[in-house]
Design brief:
This protein has seven helices and seven strands. It is an alpha+beta fold and about 240 residues long.
């Protein structure tokens, strides 16, 4: 596919002029360790929306990426709206990254490789500083992928380094049947996992802050090819 690079550059130049961003420092700003996580998080929302659209029948469902700040009476910004056209029933999807560097070969209560998903509210909102958990009723479906879990956290260098464990990396490469690091990264970016909040809720109806997800899929988290059937189970009596 041909891409108009000059138009893209002009759009960036216009953006920088509009928001008083020095063009010569544009990439440096994007690489800043305070900025990059926000960009990656927002990008994940758009990709997650595209994943939902790809796996739902367009004649049955309308999927819209929202870009809203929290509205009066709500406690968070909604990521994606999913509407079943024939019934008009609307579902809410939340898209969260996995916890940086959280991939483990086993845990205290999990005897197989797993990673964790960062499924709590942003701490940038002071209102939620002491209560940052979601309720299982806040949204209808939660999406994440493996990628962030394989990158080291707390690094100040440019780019993203893989977790510093040969054993973990070999386990991941074996799982995805790849040899090169770049192929592993791509596989993890493409490995989306989904759950219904009600299936991971605690006794008080809150969602764990960082619920675990088994790499082998042997838990309540499922893959996108099962999404449509799961959504039908939510809207049909």
């Amino acid at each position: 596919m041909n891409y108009d690079h000059s138009r893209f550059y002009n759009s960036i130049a216009e953006y920088c002029q509009m928001y008083n961003v020095p063009l010569e420092n544009f990439l440096e700003i994007l690489e800043d360790q305070k900025v990059l996580p926000m960009i990656r998080g927002k990008a994940m929302e758009f990709i997650g929306c595209a994943i939902i659209q790809r796996y739902l029948d367009k004649s049955e469902w309308s999927v819209v990426k929202l870009n809203l700040n929290p509205q009066p009476g709500t406690q968070y910004d909604e990521d994606v709206s999913i509407t079943h056209k024939r019934t008009g029933k609307r579902l809410k999807a939340e898209i969260k990254s996995s916890v940086r560097g959280s991939f483990k070969l086993k845990g205290r209560d999990i005897a197989v490789p797993f990673f964790n998903v960062k499924s709590h509210k942003s701490r940038s909102n002071k209102q939620h500083a002491h209560n940052d958990r979601y309720l299982a009723t806040d949204f209808d479906v939660l999406l994440s992928n493996v990628s962030n879990a394989i990158f080291q956290g707390n690094t100040n260098k440019k780019g993203l380094d893989l977790i510093d464990s040969k054993e973990k990396i070999e386990c991941l490469k074996k799982h995805y049947n790849v040899n090169a690091d770049k192929d592993l990264v791509r596989s993890c970016y493409d490995d989306w996992r989904i759950c219904l909040p009600q299936d991971i809720a605690l006794m008080d109806n809150t969602i764990p802050r960082t619920p675990p997800v088994r790499l082998d899929g042997g838990d309540v988290w499922f893959t996108p090819d099962q999404l449509e059937n799961k959504l039908f189970s939510l809207i049909m009596p």
